[in-house]
Amino acid sequence: MANGANLILALKAAVALASVLLILSLVALGAGKVRLHGQINLVFFLAVMATLVGFEVVLRMVQPGIYDWIRQDPHLLARLRVHLCFAIPSALLLPVMLYTGFAKKSVHRKLAVLFGILWTGTAITGIFGLPHG
Ligand code: HEM
Question: Mutation test of ligand 1: which of 42, 86, 97 has the most ligand atoms closer than 8 Å to its C-beta?
Answer without folding.
Answer: 97
